[in-house]
């Protein structure tokens, strides 16, 4: 008697190769339902293989650094340069050479659920993680570019182990013994991508907390960016204590309330 489709579906979940005897049996099964399960299995396997290829490609710069004798390689990225409110947050992440978690990519390419899942995995598997946070006040005092560099430096300095090579997204930092700045580094380096996820999740959770403290601007959804809901909140309520007063249109509204 042929196995039920539900049982076949469950058994296929533990199959890792088309060479598996059970998969070969499925190929001989003429039922349409089984053919659909086989097609689904092949699609999922293709996705997994593509992610493995992506992971290996994103280890290129880390592998190059190790080949030159560097041992502690940190990826650094930031989030929050563009918002009208809240801090800029940077993360530094040191991954082991055998890091094998697929799907780690630029945080902007991932949905919230996937970011949260990878965030937990990265914290579990990383050799070290450092966070740097610079408030709206620092941003207003020194400008967003300098505040971002300060946050990145703080993230590196807070690592439990000192890196001897740093991979940095976009901007030269001049804070490490050796460093390489990569344009769109969060899609080229697994370490930078991991840092982008840690920084993004950290800041998003901070903004969700700020939303409870300062309601009416939609911080939990817009993360401080200038969405319609945020701008409407500014028009109705004026600025709140975490707004960046040197950023337009916050600056204009703030000056308007003072005049």
UniProtKB/TrEMBL annotation:
<dbReference type="InterPro" id="IPR024567">
    <property type="entry name" value="RNase_HII/HIII_dom"/>
</dbReference>
<keyword id="KW-0464">Manganese</keyword>
<protein>
    <recommendedName>
        <fullName>Ribonuclease HII</fullName>
        <ecNumber>3.1.26.4</ecNumber>
    </recommendedName>
</protein>
<dbReference type="GO" id="GO:0005737">
    <property type="term" value="C:cytoplasm"/>
</dbReference>
<comment type="function">
    <text>Endonuclease that specifically degrades the RNA of RNA-DNA hybrids.</text>
</comment>
<dbReference type="InterPro" id="IPR001352">
    <property type="entry name" value="RNase_HII/HIII"/>
</dbReference>
<keyword id="KW-0255">Endonuclease</keyword>
<dbReference type="GO" id="GO:0004523">
    <property type="term" value="F:RNA-DNA hybrid ribonuclease activity"/>
</dbReference>
<keyword id="KW-0479">Metal-binding</keyword>
<keyword id="KW-0540">Nuclease</keyword>
<feature type="domain" description="RNase H type-2">
    <location>
        <begin position="71"/>
        <end position="259"/>
    </location>
</feature>
<dbReference type="InterPro" id="IPR022898">
    <property type="entry name" value="RNase_HII"/>
</dbReference>
<feature type="binding site">
    <location>
        <position position="78"/>
    </location>
    <ligand>
        <name>a divalent metal cation</name>
    </ligand>
</feature>
<dbReference type="GO" id="GO:0006298">
    <property type="term" value="P:mismatch repair"/>
</dbReference>
<dbReference type="GO" id="GO:0003723">
    <property type="term" value="F:RNA binding"/>
</dbReference>
<dbReference type="InterPro" id="IPR036397">
    <property type="entry name" value="RNaseH_sf"/>
</dbReference>
<comment type="similarity">
    <text>Belongs to the RNase HII family.</text>
</comment>
<keyword id="KW-0378">Hydrolase</keyword>
<dbReference type="Pfam" id="PF01351">
    <property type="entry name" value="RNase_HII"/>
</dbReference>
<feature type="binding site">
    <location>
        <position position="77"/>
    </location>
    <ligand>
        <name>a divalent metal cation</name>
    </ligand>
</feature>
<dbReference type="GO" id="GO:0032299">
    <property type="term" value="C:ribonuclease H2 complex"/>
</dbReference>
<dbReference type="InterPro" id="IPR012337">
    <property type="entry name" value="RNaseH-like_sf"/>
</dbReference>
<dbReference type="GO" id="GO:0030145">
    <property type="term" value="F:manganese ion binding"/>
</dbReference>
<keyword id="KW-0963">Cytoplasm</keyword>
<feature type="binding site">
    <location>
        <position position="169"/>
    </location>
    <ligand>
        <name>a divalent metal cation</name>
    </ligand>
</feature>
<dbReference type="GO" id="GO:0043137">
    <property type="term" value="P:DNA replication, removal of RNA primer"/>
</dbReference>
């Amino acid at each position: 008697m042929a196995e039920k489709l539900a049982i076949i579906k469950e058994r296929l979940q533990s199959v890792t190769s088309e060479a598996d005897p059970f998969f070969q049996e499925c190929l001989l099964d003429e039922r349409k339902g089984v053919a659909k399960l086989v097609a689904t299995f092949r699609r999922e396997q293709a996705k997994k293989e593509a992610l493995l290829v992506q992971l290996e490609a994103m280890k290129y710069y880390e592998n190059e650094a190790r080949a030159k004798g560097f041992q502690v390689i940190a990826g650094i990225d930031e989030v929050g340069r563009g918002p009208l409110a809240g801090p800029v947050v940077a993360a530094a992440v040191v991954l082991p050479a055998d890091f094998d978690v697929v799907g780690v990519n630029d945080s902007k390419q991932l949905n919230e659920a996937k970011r949260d899942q990878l965030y937990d995995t990265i914290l579990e598997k990383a050799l070290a993680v450092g966070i740097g946070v610079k408030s709206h006040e620092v941003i207003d005092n020194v400008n967003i570019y300098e505040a971002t560099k300060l946050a990145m430096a703080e993230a590196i300095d807070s690592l439990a182990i000192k890196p001897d090579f740093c991979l940095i997204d976009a901007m030269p930092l001049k804070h490490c013994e050796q460093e390489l700045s990569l344009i769109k580094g969060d899609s080229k380096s697994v370490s930078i991508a991991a840092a982008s996820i840690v920084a993004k999740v950290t800041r998003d959770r901070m903004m969700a907390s700020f939303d409870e403290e300062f309601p009416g601007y939609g911080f939990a959804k817009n993360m401080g960016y200038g969405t319609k809901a945020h701008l409407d909140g500014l028009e109705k309520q004026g600025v709140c204590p975490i707004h960046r007063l040197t950023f337009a249109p916050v600056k204009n509204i703030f000056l308007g309330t003072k005049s």
